Amino acid sequence: MSESSDQKVIDAAPTTHAKLAAWVQEIAELTKPDRVYWVDGTQEENDRLTAELVETGTLKRLTDPSFPNSFAAFSDPKDVARVEERTFICSEDEKDAGFTNNWENPVKMKSMLTGLFDGAMRGRTMYVIPFVMGPLDAEQPQYGVEITDSAYVVASMRIMALIGDKVLRQIEAEDAFFVPALHSVGAPLAPGQQDVAWPCNEDKWIVHFPEERSIWSYGSGYGGNALLGKKCYALRIASVMARDEGWLAEHMLILKLTNPEGKSYNIAGAFPSACGKTNLALLDPTIEGWKAETLGDDINWMRIGKDGELRGVNPEYGLFGVAPGTGWSNNPNAMNAITKGNSIFTNVALTDEGGVWWEGMTDEVPAHLTDWLGNDWTPESGRVAAHPNSRFCTPIDQVDMLSQEYYSPDGVEIHAILFGGRRKTTIPLVTQARSWAHGIFMGSTLSSETTAAAAGAVGVVRRDPMAMLPFIGYNAGDYLKHWDSIESKANPARLPKIFLVNWFRRDADGGFAWPGFGDNSRVLKWAIDRIEGKAEAVETPIGFVPTGDSIDLTGLDMTPADVEAAVVVDKDEWATELASIQEWYAKFGEALPASLRAELEGLKERLGA
Ligand code: PEP
Ligand code: NA
Ligand code: MN
Questions:
Q1: What is the distance in A from the centroid of ligand 1 to the CA of 223?
Q2: Is the pTM of the predicted complex or chain greater than 0.90?
Q3: CATH number among 3.10.20.90, 3.30.110.30, 3.40.449.10, 3.90.180.10, domain 3-56+82-246
Q4: 393 flagged as catalytic
Q5: Is 424 annotated as a binding residue?
Q6: Across the beta sheet with 369-370, what order do the strands follow?
Q7: What is the ipTM of this complex?
Q8: Pairing with 246, which of 369, 370, 556, 586 sits 20 to 30 Å away (CA)?
Q9: For residue 13, is pLDDT > 80?
Q10: Which pLDDT tens digit goes with each residue over 290-335?
């Protein structure tokens, strides 16, 4: 790039924010794009960018009227998911990354990345996206600016966050701090070189500098690797901010439930992938008179309110959900939101009518599709039509059951926290924690059996603390200490009650011990009744479980004895579990908080082990 075109970049910077102008100039000089474009966030701009993406073949415009103003993208087959093994937390001290993260010296990493980014945007447009995570009228809005060379990222970020001029003007007015989030697909174009539909690089780096609160992402165009407001900022970097500032950035849904008397409760829930988080976030209760409203499906920022209560905010503007398994019969609320339009689908199948389809969307399987790889597909093909990690990206305000409180700048009081995993045995349908510390013990030992969707053996128990294993931006032991410290910062009487749930337990015949889906509202009702002091429970060595008749079974073909079977605490299973928990805790070494060591000792004693 010539001296004069560098100058053009500076002059073109439509901002009075000195740090932002300087950073954009620095990155433009490093990455050497053909042009720099500041994203304003308007509909007109989005129409123009998506039309360009259709032109270049990145997006297909859906012509089926069931999917208005919607598009499908098909990634490089090697760029379909988050790359945890290429994800780094580059704290100054290696100790601060802990055993759950990859680490590299930040100076070394920066210098390596600077080499990779040098000229990385040649032949492309560099987009500057000012964005805010959470409400713009929050007491302390959390700003970011993503620089990317992908227009697909711009269009997706517009669904997932509030972006553009409105945000930029406020960043300037407050001379505010913003998280600098740099992204490149890592595929520069030589003069005259033909672009591909999904540019990316075999070499991928998703790197976080926690002290600096910055993100560098290289080589991938896929969601969690490239939409940097989501996992990189709102979980990994935000978890570090939260540690330093006394709040919690968590991988949780938020659901509001109102009982027949009109009293409302907000429930936060942390579940690893493929454990029904989106279904729970958009739940249709099967119990008479109960109403559910959605507040969030993936991320929950919790701060301590004026009265010492925990208040949760969903910092996102859209849903970025796994498509397969989301269908008209099991999640009509999600399907209604998706089919209002304005959605971007990635790696789903195309119907002959110009719409999209994925496994589980409809009970009836289409006779012919174009699969996510572009091949003809019929039910006899013997393979899936949509990639198992294909996604829908849809504005959250299209969810009919969205609570009005979603828009509240200081969020909602959280009354209960659920930790849940997928376990065939051992873990009861629901267990109430004995205390806050015991609840943290449950969260820290949260486990799930690996499914066929993930690489590796199936049915292996993997520990996933608070469902945050890939997202804790610092030392996992310090993270648990931080959870522990919330008790003394909050009003203990107002702290949420904690429950461990397992919708997936099997009965003696190998079938599911619990019907799940909308009937999970019955378990939530029990939890709320516990908070109210109205529901009965049995004290077991692992916590409080429901008595057989304390769960409302009205209209279900189940008996109290079935409930008792679903919550039984088996001595032998727990002997095995205890050994597995001890092994897990040993990995934390010195970083394990004393309170959790004490919880483990207490459990051992109660189990008579
Ligand atoms: C993602 O991979 O972009 C993502 C949202 O992650 P997950 O659904 O696994 O939480
Ligand atoms: Na938006
Ligand atoms: Mn998630």
A1: 7
A2: yes
A3: 3.40.449.10
A4: no
A5: no
A6: 356-357, 349-351, 369-370, 376-377
A7: 0.90
A8: 586
A9: no
A10: 999 999 999 999 999 999 999 999 999 999 999 999 999 999 999 9
